[in-house]
Structure formats: structure tokens, C-alpha cells
Amino acid sequence: MSISKAAISKISQDNIEKRLQIERLIEATRIVASSAGSDVVKGLTQTPKSLPPWYFYDDRGSELFEQICELPEYYLTRTETSILQQCAGEIAKITGACELVELGSGSSTKTRILLNAYQQLGYPLRYLPIDVSAGILESSARQLLADYPSLQVHALAGTYELALAQLLPRQLSSRMLCFIGSTLGNLQPQQCDVFFSQITDALQVGEYFLLGIDLQKPKHIVEPAYNDCLGVTAAFNLNMLDHLNRRFEGNFDTTQFEHWAFYHETEQQIEMHLRSLRSQTVQLKSLNLTVNFAADETILTEVSRKFDLNTIQQQLTAWGLAPRHVWTDPNQWFGLLLCQLQAI
Ligand code: AVJ
């Protein structure tokens, strides 16, 4: 007797459910702390106005970000991917079997390169993706589980501050924290130090931290990556207002704002803003917030810092996260650092 196709797909579906766990940290905290949105109130009531970049990543924003990663102008993703393809085998050999914790996992496309390397060495596969978009977290986890039959996934939906503070006990003897894609660039130097201390708290001595960073380079290469011809980055930036509308019962009119991004050369960082096209008033009902905008007033939505490889290595070493290996591409556009937590 042969098993029908439907039965097979039922079996593997059950099998996926057994290997998948998703926890939504944002929802839990909203109820407990009722502090959701206080960062929005703070940012929109100060001068100049700003908003935290994690509000880009609702489900729609995560889709738009995936499109950005495919753009010819956006060199970051394909450069980091090429580095990972070169060194994933080496990384797996150095770390040995370990669970992968990824901050800002998104579609987990680049993570597959690492999973393949660990799989090839016959190591058990356990993956803890963390992302603010529960939608992309769930769909990419299901896809991974279908493609890697021995993989276990425990996903956490929430900001990485929340997730790092609530990481589960280890099931494998060791762990590697992955922070790739240059999301570190979103953190101001002070926030960076807080973040590194959270990383050292989350790791045991001898465990690894894999960091991917965009390196300093001429303006004519960086700036177009944030001003693409198709306007995907503009849509991504404006979607933050739609996200706030949905989340906090707001009435931002996205046709009355425009995308503005430039490379600040002395600071070596991209600054992304939304510029108000006229004087206008916006309300966010559930936050009890009314905001006035002057014509041409801007909201800073993102800073994307570009790094110097020597400086970041020194900073990591000072935090006890000594880089064991550093890889770059032939142009030195992007850096990947495998750091190991030292005993103090
Ligand atoms: C995810 C923070 C690395 O700064 O390049 C892409 C986000 N913003 N286009 C970046 C982003 C505009 C991205 N990071």
C-alpha cells in the first residue's frame, strides 16, 4: 500500500509543528508594562523630531526591506553574502556545534549559508531567530523547517533588547550570537556600548559573536544605496508612518511627506529623514498625541553608521569580545568579524 501525497504532507506538517516554537515578546510586554509607544511619544515631542528605526519592520516593511536587499544600488547584502559563502565552513569549524541566535533575522536568507556549513559537518541544527516582525519570523521559520529536516527553531518576536534579556537556556553546549547585515549601524556610539554589554551578558566565556558591518567608503557608492531609482527605499521609509497609523490609530498622510537620505561624510553615516511637505497636524489617538509639523520640518528615521575595521576591532576587544577572525570582500566594502568572549 502506498501512502498518498496528502498523507505525506500531513506527516511533515506535524513534524514541522513539533520543531517550531514562536513566542511574541512585544505583545507580552505591552500588557505587562503598557510602555508601548513611549519611544514614539519621546521622539515626536523633541526637537529635532526622530523615530526609532525598528518601527520600519512591520510585516510590510520587512517585505520592502527584502526588496531593498535585491536592488543593484544596495551593495550591502550581496557583498556580505559573498563573504559568508567564502568563510561559513571555516566559521563552523572554529565554533564547533552550537546553537545560532540571530538578532534581526528577517527572511533568514543569509543564515542558510551558515546552516548549510553546520549541516555539512554533521552538527545538530538549532536556531533562535529574533525579529520584530512576527509575520516574517513565522513564514521564514516554516520554510527553514521544511528545508532542513533535523532543524529545531525557537523564534522570538520582539526587539533585541527584550529578546536578549529573555533568551532561553541552552539546549546545545554552546551558542553563537549572530548580528549580521550591519544593523549595528543603527546604534549611536553610546547605544552601541549598552548593546555590547548586553551581548557579553548573553554569552558564556568561550562562546561566539558573529558581527557583520558596512565599512566606510566614498559617498558616491554609499548614497545611491539609500536613494534607489525604483523608489523602494522611499516606500520603506514612508511605510513607517503607515505602521504608526495602524499601531497607534494615527492619521499620518504619507502623500504629505517625502523621503530624504544623504551621506554625512564627516560622521561617516547615512541619515534618513521624512520631510513634511507642508505645515500639518497629525494625531496618534491611542497615544493621546498631537504633533505639529512646519513645512519642510523633518523626522530622523534612521542613522546608518559606516565603520572602520580597526576601530571596531579595538572596541570589541575592550568589551572582551576579541575578534578571532576577520573577513572582508576584495573591495573592503563590508566586514565580517567572528569574536569570542574572553574570561576577564
Ligand atoms: C538593516 C540597518 C542595515 O542601514 O542599510 C536599508 C536598513 N535602511 N535601506 C541599512 C536600511 C534603508 C539597513 N540596515
User: Which range does the strand content fall in?
Assistant: 25-35%
Mean pLDDT, to the nearest integer, reads 93
Please tally the helical runs, counting DSSP H or I stretches of 4 or more residues. Answer: 12
Give the helix level as a range of percent: 40-55%
Q: By helix and strand content, what is the structural category?
A: alpha/beta
Characterize the biggest β-sheet.
8 strands, mixed
Total DSSP E strands: 14
Domain Histidine-specific methyltransferase SAM-dependent: 38-340
Enzyme class: transferase
GO biological process, one term: methylation
Keywords: Methyltransferase, Transferase
Q: Can you describe what's shown?
A:
InterPro entries: EgtD, EgtD_Methyltrsf_superfamily, MeTrfase_dom, MeTrfase_EgtD-like, SAM-dependent_MTases_sf. One of its GO terms (molecular function) is L-histidine N(alpha)-methyltransferase activity. Its EC number is 2.1.1.44. It holds the Pfam family Methyltransf_33. With 344 residues, the protein is of the alpha/beta class. The protein is 41% helix and 25% strand. The protein has an eight-stranded mixed β-sheet, with helices on both faces. A four-stranded mixed β-sheet has the order 2-12-9-8. A two-stranded antiparallel ribbon has the order 10-11. A hairpin with a 4-residue loop joins strand 10 and strand 11 (289-293). Helix 4 runs antiparallel to helix 11 and helix 5 runs parallel beside helix 6 (111-120). The longest helix is centred in the first third of the chain and has 21 residues, at 75-95. The protein is globular. Mean pLDDT is 93; it is low at 27-34. It binds N,N,N-trimethyl-histidine (AVJ).
